[in-house]
Specification:
With 322 residues, the protein is an alpha/beta fold. The protein has a single domain, classed as Ribokinase (UDP-N-acetylmuramoyl-L-alanine:D-glutamate ligase, 3-Layer(aba) Sandwich). The protein is 35% helix and 21% strand. The protein is built from ten helices and 13 strands. The strands form two sheets. It has a nine-stranded mixed β-sheet with strand order 5-4-1-8-9-10-11-12-13, sandwiched between helices. A hairpin with a 5-residue loop joins strand 11 and strand 12. Helix 1 crosses helix 8. The protein is globular, with a radius of gyration of 18 Å.
């Protein structure tokens, strides 16, 4: 599968990440923090723009200083925000406190009254989908209404415009009213999409059996998806297409933190598809981007640009089959 271009519409949250500083500091011992753009969808958009693509975000942010921080950061990274709406009242932007450490790592997420869940059908209906080459969304947008209905409406509009739908499962239990609701909604969303990316736990969750994740990924392709990337952490990934089953390994790295890998993988992967890489090479590019980001401070500011990623790929032999 190849995309016709590198103009992406990305649906989902933008927030603030706070990292205890200097790297290695425990949150409870911190006296200063490093702030940067956060939120999985915003991070994916950053990864795309850093690699030369165009990414426009559709979401809501709070009408306060934290929301304006997110808007300023979107501008900093060149992410289009014509479809980002500020909301007042009690809605608040997502906030994450994330440690730059792998041993006893702690991430604390604040999502009560999340502003991004205020996205409505109106927010997605005035988008000109013909300006884009694909739509990307993360699973978090489906966790609550009215965001859930708006995301499914965007799916319908994007499909009508001929756009491939790319779905990062991104299951966060704390965002959902129950596991049963999440499994039902994820299965509905996955069945509509052309590309589904997730880890073994996430696919297992969709299947209703954590031991059946691989079979679920295969089934999604058998039922009409073009690509399902089944990630297995240090054991690499298996990518299913209608014609092949592609096993790939990971690029060894000296990780500073366990976070950011999924967002950077997605950005590198879809950018590879847009550049005309084979599915296997696009997966390897995503894996390389993930290896780079976990070895750097932050998530959005850690995303590699084209030159850095190309140099990494030149310097590191491909991991080959998992």
């Amino acid at each position: 599968m190849r995309l016709t271009g590198n103009r992406f519409l990305v649906i989902g949250r933008a927030g603030m990440d706070l990292y205890p500083d200097p790297p290695g500091t425990k949150t409870e011992e911190a006296t200063q923090f490093f702030a940067c753009l956060g939120g999985s969808s915003a991070n994916i958009a950053v990864a795309i723009t850093r690699l030369g693509g165009q990414a426009d975000l559709v979401t809501c942010v709070s009408d306060d200083a934290i929301g304006r921080f997110a808007l300023n950061q979107l501008d900093h990274y060149g992410i289009g925000r014509a479809h980002v709406r500020s909301v007042g009242g009690e809605a608040r932007n997502s906030l994450a406190v994330v440690e730059t450490r792998t041993l006893d790592h702690q991430s604390v997420i604040y999502r009560n009254g999340a502003a991004d869940f205020e996205m409505t059908a109106d927010d997605v209906e005035w988008v000109d989908y013909t300006r884009y080459d694909a739509l990307i969304t993360t699973g978090t947008v489906f966790a609550a209404e009215p965001s859930r209905g708006a995301a499914f409406r965007a799916f319908d509009l994007a499909r009508a415009a001929g756009l491939p739908l790319i779905f990062d499962i991104d299951y966060r239990p704390y965002s959902w009213p129950s596991a049963a609701v999440a499994a039902d909604v994820y299965s509905r969303a996955g069945a509509m999409c052309d590309v589904i990316v997730g880890n073994d736990v996430e696919f297992g969750f969709m299947a209703g059996d954590y031991g059946a994740g691989r079979a679920k990924a295969q089934a999604l392709v058998a039922e009409g998806a073009r690509i399902a990337v089944y990630k297995m952490g240090e054991n690499g990934a298996v990518t299913f297409t209608p014609d092949a089953e592609i096993a790939t390994g990971i690029y060894p790295t000296q990780a500073l933190k366990p976070t950011g890998a999924g967002d950077s993988f997605m950005g590198g992967f879809v950018s590879g598809l847009a550049d005309g890489l084979s599915v296997r090479d696009a997966v390897l590019q995503g894996s390389a981007a993930a290896a780079m980001v976990v070895a750097r401070v932050g998530c959005a500011p850690a995303m590699p640009d084209r030159t850095e990623l190309a140099q990494f790929l030149r310097d590191h032999a491909g991991p080959g089959a998992a």
